[in-house]
Design goal:
There is one protein chain. This protein is an alpha+beta fold and 250 residues long. It has two domains: 129 residues, PAS domain (Beta-Lactamase); 104 residues, Arc Repressor Mutant, subunit A, CATH 1.10.10.60. It is 43% helix and 16% strand. Strands 2-1-5-4-3 form a five-stranded antiparallel β-sheet, with helices on both faces. β1 and β2 form a beta hairpin. α4 crosses α5, α5 crosses α6 and α8 crosses α9.
Length: 250
Amino acid sequence: MANHPSGQALLPALRRIGAVVSEVVELFDYLEDVPFWLKDADCRFQWVNISFVLTFGARSRVEIIGKTDYDFCGEVLANQYRMDDERVLRGDRILSRVELVGQFAHTARWSATTKIPLRNAQGRIVGSAGFTRPMYQQPGSTVAGSPLSAAIRLISEHYADGIANEQLAKACGLSVRTFERQFRSVYQSSPHEYLRQLRVRMSSSALVFSRKSIADVGSEFGFADQSHFTKEFKRVMGETPRAYRARYLF
């Protein structure tokens, strides 16, 4: 490990991103069980440490550079990560937030994740950096210090269903008012808004890879009707479901 030439890969990655970041991040190669990464403004990995490579079952960094979370995680988790990345690229920071992190065996574990924006010499945000550390727990137990973990699990498993805040709050052992306040503080959105964004992002795959009607896709992912689906999709993705399908359909 002492002779690992990771700096040779790290410095070109930093130049590609154009960020002002110290070479000291190379030290993350020596951290066990703490995946660390650098992404560009398109959310593509530009550098990862060895722990990241091992966590996602790759043989080397080369297999990861240039790819996105969608290449390594289930679609639900990847969409949640993308929502966070877009928030960071707007200038926010995510500090020690507990979330489910996917692994190469198609499993997930609770981890505390931190993400920050990367800026170039002119102060423009050109990418992001992050790391995540596992939170070890007994099977079936609640992650210590994370009252919202049960809500995120419910949302991940039932995003297409109607999930009331009362149900989410009960799963977390919180009052509805406390749950809503804590959720907004951690995720910078209401539970309802978070769920709507996730539904839109999950629906995008069905638009491209299925021949279902737009109305059927919207219904499948929990929208009341085609008009509602179109309105929410355009608000989140910047274009209508029909335009999105036309742009990516092959």
